[in-house]
């Protein structure tokens, strides 16, 4: 049994961002088109603040127009909907991202539904979910799009492979399953009511874990040589008991990485696997939305 190849999502994402920056430079030079992304943050959630800052920095680094709207936690739903409407009509903005979670008094579904589907770079609008499901061009949710890119880079053609997706959320599990179907995989979607999850996972040539439970997928759930994509981001106490007692934490995925390495053919680490692909795909979606707004050919 040989040890798994570690899929370097950080390097892949850096390379992708470089290609996107080239695409942006090209549309700026040839079409005077500056792709623009507006990110809306409501409230003070610390993790969201970090994500939003990173998104802004990487958008600017790619040569795009970047706008961040930071709104107080007591912003009303009406005020947020007015801002979304304003961004929908702003010709300098091609992508709109409303950072989730929103404060409890705001109906997230209503806000996501108000975003112009052509500017919905998160791919969460039902129009984009529907277009993806029926195989029409869509803006595809960033995390599963990033997973698919890593898989294609690792495996090549996915045709005929059995993919098991653990998790059926609208933002990861379901669109992941749709993308794998489009890539001609045979797809099984598992969830909290799946009977004998371990046995289901053992049948996977490709295993995508998007559950949100630290190290739930054990090494012996993995078929020898399978490609494992770990979407989970879970914060757990640090290994060192003294550090843990001092409140130090570390990130782990949904897969028990050390065990899984002994079985998998290739595996994404956490951190440094899927995570960096998410923002890179957000930039890609923004470039795609900008090109489509002018009827231009999409970047390769
Ligand atoms: P959700 O909580 O929305 O969905 C979790 C899914 O896992 C549900 O479908 C649930 O099943 C299923 N599930 C929960 N417990 C079990 C179990 N014991 N056995 C089998 N299935 C189970 O999470 P998300 O999809 O939003 O996120 C999943 C993980 O991915 C999280 O760790 C999140 O932090 C991470 N994430 C990472 C991103 C990145 O950029 N790398 C981006 C987005 C998410 P059911 O439907 O039956 O309840």
Automatic annotation (TrEMBL):
Pathway: One-carbon metabolism; tetrahydrofolate interconversion. InterPro entries: Aminoacid_DH-like_N_sf, NAD(P)-bd_dom_sf, THF_DH/CycHdrlase, THF_DH/CycHdrlase_cat_dom, THF_DH/CycHdrlase_CS, THF_DH/CycHdrlase_NAD-bd_dom. Residues 141-292 form the Tetrahydrofolate dehydrogenase/cyclohydrolase NAD(P)-binding domain. One of its GO terms (cellular component) is cytosol. NADP(+) binds at residues 167-169, 233. Residues 7-122 form the Tetrahydrofolate dehydrogenase/cyclohydrolase catalytic domain. It catalyses: (6R)-5,10-methylene-5,6,7,8-tetrahydrofolate + NADP(+) = (6R)-5,10-methenyltetrahydrofolate + NADPH; (6R)-5,10-methenyltetrahydrofolate + H2O = (6R)-10-formyltetrahydrofolate + H(+). Its EC number is 1.5.1.5, 3.5.4.9. One of its GO terms (biological process) is methionine biosynthetic process. Keywords: Amino-acid biosynthesis, Histidine biosynthesis, Hydrolase, Methionine biosynthesis, Multifunctional enzyme, NADP, One-carbon metabolism, Oxidoreductase, Purine biosynthesis. GO terms for molecular function: methenyltetrahydrofolate cyclohydrolase activity; methylenetetrahydrofolate dehydrogenase (NADP+) activity. Homodimer. Belongs to the tetrahydrofolate dehydrogenase/cyclohydrolase family. Catalyzes the oxidation of 5,10-methylenetetrahydrofolate to 5,10-methenyltetrahydrofolate and then the hydrolysis of 5,10-methenyltetrahydrofolate to 10-formyltetrahydrofolate. This is Bifunctional protein FolD. It comes from Aerophototrophica crusticola. The gene is folD.
């Amino acid at each position: 049994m040989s040890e798994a190849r570690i899929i370097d999502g950080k390097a892949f994402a850096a390379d992708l961002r470089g290609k996107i920056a080239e695409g942006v430079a090209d549309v700026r030079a040839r079409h005077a088109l500056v792709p623009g992304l507006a990110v809306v943050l409501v409230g003070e959630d610390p993790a969201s603040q970090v994500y939003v800052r990173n998104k802004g920095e990487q958008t600017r680094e790619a040569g795009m127009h970047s706008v961040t709207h930071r709104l107080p936690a007591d912003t009303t739903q009406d005020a947020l909907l007015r801002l979304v409407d304003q961004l929908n009509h702003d010709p300098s903005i091609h992508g709109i991202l409303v950072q989730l979670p929103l404060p409890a008094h705001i109906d997230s579904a209503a806000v996501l539904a108000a975003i112009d589907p052509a500017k919905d770079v998160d791919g969460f609008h039902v129009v984009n979910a529907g277009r993806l499901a029926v195989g029409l061009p869509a803006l595809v949710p960033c995390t599963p799009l990033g997973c698919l890119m890593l898989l294609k880079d690792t495996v090549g053609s996915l045709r005929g492979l059995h993919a098991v997706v653990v998790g059926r959320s609208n933002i990861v599990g379901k669109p992941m399953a749709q993308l794998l179907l489009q890539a001609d995989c045979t797809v099984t979607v598992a969830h909290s009511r799946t009977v004998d999850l371990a046995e289901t996972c053992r049948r996977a040539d490709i295993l995508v874990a998007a559950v949100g439970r630290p190290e739930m997928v054990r090494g012996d759930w993995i078929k020898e040589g399978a490609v494992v994509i770990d979407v989970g981001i879970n914060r757990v106490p640090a290994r060192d008991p003294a550090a843990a007692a001092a409140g130090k934490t570390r990130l782990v995925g949904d897969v028990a990485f050390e065990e899984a390495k002994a079985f998998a053919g290739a595996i994404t680490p956490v951190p440094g696997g899927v995570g960096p692909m998410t923002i890179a795909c957000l930039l890609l979606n923004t470039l795609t939305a900008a090109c489509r707004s002018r009827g231009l050919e999409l970047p390769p």
